[in-house]
Amino acid sequence: MKIGVPIEIKNNENRVGMTPSGVFELTKRNHTVFVQKDAGFGSGFFNEDYVKAGAIILDTIEDVYAAAEMIVKVKEPIEKEYALIKSHHTVFTYFHFASSEALTDAMIESKAVCIAYETVEDADGSLPLLIPMSEVAGRMSIQQGAKYLEKPIKGRGILLGGIPGVPPAHVLVLGGGIVGIQAAKMAAGLGANVTIMDVNMKQLRHIANIMPENVHTEFSSEYNIRRHLPQTDLIIGGVLLKGAKAPKLITRDMLKEMRPGTVIVDVAVDQGGCFETTRPTTHEEPTYIIDDVVHYSVANMPGAVPYTSTVGLTNVTLPYVIKLANEGWEKACENNASLAKGLNVVHGKIVYKEIAEAFDLEFEMA
N or C end: fewer C-beta atoms under 10 angstroms in the chain? Predict the structure, then answer.
């Protein structure tokens, strides 16, 4: 198969869809890999590394799409790429369709096969291709939250862990999945007082058993969330509904219950965000302020640490890329139930129920 790895052109996205190691694994299986010139540069991988691994370097993104049968990316295609995607393409990347009707419409029109990392699902319900980026984003949410609590950046002016004689910050984590656990772990390690909320009591019991004493668990409800807001300094939104829009757990009116300079970090921004006032931001302009509350909602947070993120992601995506290359998308999905759940749009038809529901479009079984 001919596989293309283009440069990610989303704002400040420095990750790459394949490392030289991945290229080597594919080329030794007699597949051809086309890598756009300097695609790996932001992650610390150079053109000569890819050439040594057996890749063919192409100058432009247009060249890569034209040469390839399968496109392996990190982030969803943006508007400049829509016209490059054709009906013969299989596109394997993060799509997060439920947060963008324009992207959904464009991929329907392209008639390509769109397989989304974020909905590949194992038998136990886990999302193996989302986990490493959720781990990165969860940990980064605390790094960023701590930074934006500083007064020069309009935060409350509070040190997350406090000092002797001065109490630490209060951190509220919404969602007890991978993002929430990693965020709580980081915040607790810095000495903050942490409350993590979820509606899954089994998960809350698990969290209570593995976390240090400065992490507390609580059942998530609007009443309980509101009760915490007046004394919370940093709120992390890490709620995920597989393939669907995130629920709005913090509404606009709740901002007035927070103290000026409170920071809210919405890790669920790719799925539409779990705060009503969320809008996607970039690493160039990561924050905005509404009602004196600092909002951080960078849509590609792991892109700020591209080496860690690229290696972590490609560790888990490569086995699926190899399956797709060896067998073609139809046979690979037929033989692998986890990969089959990654099918979102196939030849102009939505085959993932939650996406169809998000935009009131027709759903068809894959």
Answer: C
